[in-house]
Amino acid sequence: DINRPILIREKIDEEFFYADGKKIKHRGFLLHFYSYTGKALAQGGLVQEIPLQKEKAEIKPNKDFEVAKTKRGTMLRLKNLQFEPDRAVLLKGEEAKLDEIAKILKKSESEFFFVEGHTADVGKPEDEKNLSQERAKTVIEKLVKMGIPAEKFIYQGAGGTKPIAPNGTEEGRAQNRRVEITIID
Questions:
Q1: What Å distances lie between residue 183 and 26, 28, 47, 52, 98, CA to CA?
Q2: Are 73 and 110 in contact (CB under 8 A)?
Q3: Which neighbouring-strand residues pair with 39?
Q4: Among candidates 130, 153, 158, 127, which has minimal Cα distance to 142?
Q5: 33 phi/psi in degrees, rounded to 5
Q6: How far is CA 74 from CA 2, 79, 90, 115, 169, in A?
Q7: Please, are residues 38 and 52 in contact by the beta-carbon 8 Å criterion?
Q8: Is the distance from CB of 125 to CB of 19 less than 8 angstroms?
Q9: Which residues pair with 4 in a beta bridge?
C-alpha cells in the first residue's frame, strides 16, 4: 500500500473594486493539503498505482444547510446561522444548527475541513474580513466542542468579497452573511 501526502500551492493575485472607489488586493498563495492512498501492483517489474475508490455516503441538505460539489470537495453552506450584530458570537439556540454538521464531519474520512466565513458588503472591507474570519473560528470552536479534532480545520474569512446575492436588499445581505464548510476530497 502507498500512502503519501500531496501538497498543491496555488498562487493568488486578486483585486476587488468597490463602487465607492475602494479596492482590496489579495496577493500570496494558498496551500492545499491532500492525502493519496492507492495500491501498488507489481507488473513485469513495473509498479502501477491503482487508486482506491470508496463509496461515499451522500449528504442530504436540510433546513439549516445546503450541499454543493466544488473543486475542493463537498461544501455545506450554513443557512441563516445567526450571530450578534458585528460580533463573532452565536445567538442563543444557534448552536443546535451545528449538531447535524458535527455528525456529518464525524463520519467523514476527510483529513481536512475548510471553513470560510462571509459577511455582507456593508462596512469597511478590512473589518468585514476580520469579522468573517472570527465567525469561521467561532463555528470551528463549537464543532471542536462537539468532538471533531481541531487539527482537521483550516479556515479563512472572505469578508464581503464573495457575495451569493445582491447586497441591495436585507434579504440579499442575509444570504451573504454565511459560513461554508468544505469537506476536502
A1: 24, 23, 31, 18, 15
A2: yes
A3: 50
A4: 153
A5: -110, 130
A6: 25, 16, 24, 12, 29
A7: yes
A8: no
A9: 36
Residue whose C-alpha cell reads 458588503 in the numeric block: 121
The pLDDT averaged over each successive group of 10 residues in the chain (185 residues) is 63 72 75 58 46 63 92 91 92 92 93 93 90 95 95 93 91 92 92
> What CA–CA distance (Å, rounded) separates 87 from 89?
6
Q: Are 63 and 56 in contact (CB under 8 A)?
A: no
H/E stretch holding 13 reads strand 2-17
pLDDT tens for residues 23-34? 777 777 777 666
Instruction: Enumerate the β-bridge partners of residue 31.
Output: 9
> Which residues have C-beta within 8 Å of that of residue 1, sequence separation ≥ 6?
37, 38, 39, 40
Per-residue model confidence as pLDDT tens digits over 44-75: 444 444 454 455 568 889 888 999 999 989 99
